[in-house]
Amino acid sequence: MVSLQFFQPEDLPDLNYELDETQSQFTAMAEEALQRIRERQDDLAHPVTIFYREKAAGFFVLDFGDDKFDLTDNPDSVLVRSLSINPALQGKGIGKSAMQKIDDFIKDNFKDCHEVVLAVNKKNTSAFELYLKTGYLYEGKTRIGRNGPQYLMYKKL
Fold first, then answer.
1. How far is 134 from 49, CA to CA, in rounded Å?
2. What is the dihedral of CA 38, 111, 97, 62, to 10 degrees?
3. Quick check: 23 pLDDT over 90?
4. Cα separations (Å) of 128 from 12, 45, 122?
5. Distance (Å, rounded) from C-alpha 73 to C-alpha 1?
6. From 24, 25, 69, 151, which residue has the greatest number of CB atoms within 10 Å?
């Protein structure tokens, strides 16, 4: 029902959904994230499309660049960023399923990666709870992000 695939340009029309004011303060939209990757000519950032019933339903980036070192000292880690699910499809377990599938996706495509890290805004309680439910650990580390304090979370693969 939910699958993950590397982003393809033909996915973009279905990923041009609008997030509400609350959600948009916590994540970048697919087009914004892709633009940043293009501007930086970033070959360490890998955009991924979340499919639900074979239709693009969400998006995130696996970033192997130096930004991950704000969250971990592990060079064999990846930072998950810009995660979003189409609001019309939220509440169906797509985000939870995607976060459960991300481990195998990383193991299959990036064999040297042994840790996943992410930062979640302290005010984004639903995302924080989702990450906890899908095996991410929070050990009290925080940082200040663009919209306030963030919890730093990780999962060993």
1. 19
2. -20
3. no
4. 27, 23, 8
5. 35
6. 151
Could you tell me the pTM of the whole model? 0.94
Condensed to tens digits (0 to 9), the pLDDT of residues 86-130 reads: 999 999 999 999 999 999 999 999 999 999 999 999 999 999 999
Q: Largest alpha-carbon pair distance within the chain?
A: 40
In the prediction, which pLDDT does 114 show?
96
| Rounded Cα–Cα distance for residues 120 and 131 (Å) | 9
CA distance 155 to 39: 29
Residue-wise pLDDT for 35-83, tens only, equals 999 998 889 999 999 999 999 999 999 999 999 999 999 999 999 999 9
State the number of CA atoms in the 13 A half-sphere of 29 facing the CB.
15
